[in-house]
Each structure stands twice: as structure tokens, then as C-alpha cells.
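Quick one, C-alpha cells below. Sequence please?
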């Protein structure tokens, strides 16, 4: 392994994941936690190099906060807040002369520790490549970080007798989702990202029975290098801008003239809201809303199923998303995510949809969108279906 590695035990991984799930720390603190391991690994590698050259090792290592800032690309204020969170949670004690990591399970993390350890010792050393540690220190997607940890604990080990590194293992997406508290969809997106980066291989030979029982085989590339200048998650440059240019002519969405059935937009209007279409209650008064449009999405659109349905059809027509059942659920779940966690819900919603940031949606938010979709489809099975089916 050209980049070297740093050993981290399942107990230490379980401690930081458990603290994150309990909201004792945030994901930025997790990045600082990983960066601390990088600093220690660099000092240990320098000490071994001096010993091989016959030089006298330095007796005092100095650790600087600006090194963490450089590794994580976080602001000094964010890094210091992360260190305070880690110290309060009992995970790390950071000082200029030493960095001390907790080696014993935090109270309450025992069940998670057992899951990560599997049938092996929770204190076994996991040889994490330093290149992957640098990747995690800069990665901004929480779900991707959790998936990487799942692959590390299930795929990396050191042979006791020979010291040889074993980079192969097997894992199920459902196990990662249940253990780390993320949706299976987010796991699938993270797996695709890691394969596109070349860090893990894809299983192409296992039978379905084996996949159902143990999951897919994978191999971690021990020589993989993280290119710091590239973004952690690549995205299409054509969809990076959130603001959209105004269209001269809005695309038509009505059914063709040959279709003499009732317009899809006009069906079941009396069941969608307590007020007539286009009227909402705002601070005790009625405010007439314009027709929903992707060129001007309103915060009220994210709260109304009928308006989201029309926006979904416009998004398909304009190429924002593809015309599929899974993408329809993604579209609704993005609205749930934006309503719950966005200071500017409309801007967050557009960013998720345009940039395909589906891994940011939690399992609970996806389930909320799924229940809403099922409730409306009880009255009309064709609600929010792909356009090829809805317009027939």
C-alpha cells in the first residue's frame, strides 16, 4: 500500500457513528475526527522512517489546528467547534503535544459495536488506507461516509501470522442501511459513487441466493489515491447552477387533442385541498397562487400534492429528472427534505433535484413521501405515475 495505513478498531468506529446518531456531534465533527487520525498516522510514519535511516526520533510531536483545517477544508471556527464536540462526547482529546482517542466503548454504543465487529474481536485493528482517511476528512456527504465505514469494517483485515492485508469481503446494502440508519437508496447511490471512483469493485459472478444471504463480494483497491483537487462527488457541470434561465415559451403539458377524456390536471380536484385550486390559507387570509411552474417554485408548492404533481411533470418534460416510478418518489422525498431542513426550502429542493443529491434524503423522509403517495393513490391509482402511463 503506497499511501500507508492507520489502524482503527471497530470500537472506535462504533463510538463516532453512535455519537453522530445520538446528535452529540455533527458530520463536520466526524470529518475532524478522521483528520486527527491522519495527523497521528503521518507522525507515526515519520518516526518509522527515521528509525529505518538510523536517525534519532523526535521526542515531541506538535499538532496544529491549522493542519486539520487544511485536511478538512473547514473554517477555523468549524474545526474548533468539532474538536469541542469530540471532547465533550469523550471521543478525542486534542492537545499540541498529543492526540488521544477513546479505546473503550462509549456507554450505549455496545449494540452498534457488536454489529460492526461481527463475529470477530471488536478490538481487532482495521488497516484504513491514509488516502481513504483524507477522502473522508473532506467528504461532505454523511451517507457516503457511513457506507465507507461499513465497507472498511467488513472488508479490511490483517493476517495475524504474516501481517498481509486482506482487502476482500462481502456486505449487504440492507445491513448498511439498518446499522447506520440511512435509506437503502442512499446506500445504492454511495456504492455507485465508490465504484465510479474505483475504490471498490463490483460483484458480477455471485448467484442471487448468495446475494440474498451474504450480500455482494467486493475488493478494495489498496493502491487507490484520493485526488484532493477534484470534488469528492462528481457532478455534471451543466446542472451545477441552481438558478435557471427563463424560458421564452413554456412547454405544453396538456393531453393531446386526440385524447377526448377529462384532462389529467382536472381530475379529483375536490379531494386535493379544502380550498379551490390555486387558493391557500396564508396567515388567516386567502392568497391566490399562480399556476405551479419550475421557473418560479413557491414555498407553498412543497406542501401541496397537486402542485408537486404538476411540477414533477414539468421536470420530466424539461429534463430535470427521468420519467420513472423511482424518480417520482425521489421528487416527493426531496420536497419533504427541503421543508424539514431548509432555511430556504425552495433553493434546497431545486439543488437536490437538479444535482441529483438523493443520498441527502433520510429513510424517514422517504417513508413519509411514500405514505403520502400511497394515500393519494388510494383514490386514483394513476396519481403521480410516469407520464407515459398517466397520459394514456
Amino acid at each position: 500500500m503506497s499511501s500507508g495505513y492507520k489502524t482503527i478498531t471497530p470500537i472506535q468506529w462504533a463510538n463516532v457513528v453512535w455519537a453522530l446518531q445520538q446528535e452529540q456531534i455533527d458530520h463536520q465533527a466526524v470529518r475532524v475526527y478522521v483528520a486527527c487520525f491522519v495527523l497521528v498516522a503521518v507522525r507515526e510514519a515519520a518516526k518509522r522512517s527515521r528509525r529505518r535511516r538510523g536517525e534519532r526520533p523526535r521526542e515531541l510531536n506538535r499538532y496544529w489546528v491549522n493542519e486539520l483545517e487544511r485536511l478538512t477544508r473547514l473554517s477555523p471556527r468549524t474545526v474548533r467547534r468539532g474538536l469541542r464536540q469530540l471532547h465533550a462526547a469523550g471521543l478525542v482529546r486534542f492537545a499540541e503535544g498529543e492526540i488521544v482517542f477513546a479505546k473503550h466503548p462509549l456507554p450505549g454504543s455496545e449494540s452498534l459495536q457488536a454489529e460492526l465487529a461481527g463475529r470477530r474481536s471488536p478490538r481487532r485493528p482495521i488497516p484504513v488506507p491514509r488516502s481513504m482517511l483524507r477522502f473522508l476528512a473532506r467528504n461532505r456527504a454523511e451517507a457516503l461516509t457511513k457506507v465507507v465505514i461499513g465497507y472498511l469494517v467488513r472488508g479490511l483485515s490483517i493476517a495475524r501470522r504474516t501481517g498481509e492485508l486482506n482487502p476482500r469481503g462481502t456486505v449487504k446494502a440492507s445491513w448498511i442501511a439498518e446499522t447506520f440508519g440511512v435509506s437503502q437508496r442512499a446506500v445504492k447511490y454511495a456504492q455507485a459513487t465508490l465504484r465510479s471512483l474505483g475504490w471498490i469493485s463490483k460483484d458480477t459472478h455471485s448467484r442471487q441466493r448468495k446475494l440474498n444471504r451474504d450480500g455482494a463480494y467486493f475488493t478494495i483497491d489498496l493502491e487507490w489515491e484520493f485526488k484532493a483537487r477534484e470534488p469528492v462527488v462528481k457532478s455534471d457541470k451543466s446542472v451545477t447552477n441552481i438558478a435557471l434561465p427563463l424560458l421564452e415559451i413554456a412547454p405544453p403539458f396538456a393531453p393531446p387533442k386526440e385524447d377526448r377524456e377529462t384532462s389529467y390536471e382536472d381530475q379529483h380536484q375536490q379531494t386535493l385541498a379544502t380550498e379551490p385550486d390555486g387558493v391557500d390559507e396564508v396567515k388567516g387570509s386567502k392568497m391566490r397562487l399562480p399556476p405551479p411552474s419550475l421557473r418560479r417554485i413557491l414555498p407553498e408548492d412543497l406542501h401541496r400534492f397537486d402542485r408537486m404533481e404538476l411540477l414533477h411533470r414539468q421536470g420530466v418534460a424539461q429534463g430535470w429528472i427521468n420519467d420513472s416510478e423511482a424518480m417520482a418518489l425521489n421528487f416527493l422525498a426531496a420536497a419533504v427534505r427541503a421543508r424539514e431542513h431548509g432555511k430556504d426550502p425552495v433553493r434546497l429542493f431545486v439543488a437536490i433535484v437538479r444535482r441529483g443529491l438523493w443520498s441527502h434524503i433520510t429513510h424517514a423522509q422517504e417513508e413519509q413521501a411514500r405514505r403520502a403517495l400511497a394515500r393519494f393513490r388510494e383514490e386514483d391509482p394513476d396519481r403521480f405515475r410516469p407520464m407515459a402511463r398517466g397520459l394514456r
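The first helix runs from residue 10 to 21. The CA atoms of residues 43 and 61 lie 7 Å apart.
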